[in-house]
């Protein structure tokens, strides 16, 4: 394979248009393309060897998720609740739906219903004036 030259076509990942498409070599360093220009969006960027960068969103989501887990269980995140630790009264209440409603109804406040939505009347279209204009 011959050495890459300025202006040669090469495939690379463009961070602007998010495609692996045709690029033109703009800069060469040590017989390797250093900078390329996307021929689709005309963006200049470093040569990425046809590899997309890792998504940053997933890293941020993972960091936020681990932070939430630390707040929930600060001691150890792998803690699980044992089946024997369930209160027998709560276990019996789960079998009878009427008791669950009584237990839940004691502490729950009711929210007022939202007001109905009233649509505004649309303005009437004005009639076009007739007879004004050139007569031919």
Question: pLDDT average, as an integer?
Answer: 75
Shape: flat
Portion of residues in beta strands equals: 15-25%
Q: Which structural class do the helices and strands define?
A: alpha+beta
Number of strands: 4
| Radius of gyration based on Cα positions | 34 Å
Q: What is the distance, rounded to the nearest whole angstrom, between the alpha carbons of the first and last residues?
A: 76 Å
Largest sheet: 4 strands, antiparallel
Q: Strands across the major sheet, in which order? A: 1-2-3-4
Element-level helix/strand string:
EEEEHHH
Instruction: Please work out how many helical segments DSSP would assign.
Output: 3
Task: Work out the oligomeric state of the chains in this entry.
Answer: single chain
Low-pLDDT segments: 77-85
Helix content: 25-40%
Note down, in words, how this protein is organized.
- 26% of the residues lie in helices and 20% in strands.
- The protein is of the alpha+beta class and 136 residues long.
- The chain has a domain at 9-46.
- It has a 4-stranded antiparallel sheet, with no helix packed on it.
- The longest helix is centred in the middle third of the chain and has 17 residues, at 56-72.
- The radius of gyration is 34 Å and the shape is flat.
- The model is unreliable at 77-85 (pLDDT under 50).
């Amino acid at each position: 394979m011959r050495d890459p030259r300025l202006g040669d076509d090469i495939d690379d990942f463009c961070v602007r248009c998010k495609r692996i498409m045709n690029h033109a070599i703009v800069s060469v360093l040590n017989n390797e393309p250093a900078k390329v220009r996307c021929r689709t969006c005309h963006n200049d960027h470093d040569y990425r060897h046809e590899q997309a960068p890792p998504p940053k969103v997933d890293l941020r989501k993972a960091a936020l998720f681990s932070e939430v887990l630390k707040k929930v269980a600060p001691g150890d995140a792998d803690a699980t609740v044992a089946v024997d630790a369930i209160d027998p009264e709560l276990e019996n209440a789960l079998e009878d739906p009427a008791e669950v409603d009584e237990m839940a109804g004691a502490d729950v406040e009711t929210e007022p219903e939202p007001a109905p939505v009233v649509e505004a009347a649309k303005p009437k279209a004005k009639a076009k004036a007739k007879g004004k204009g050139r007569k031919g």
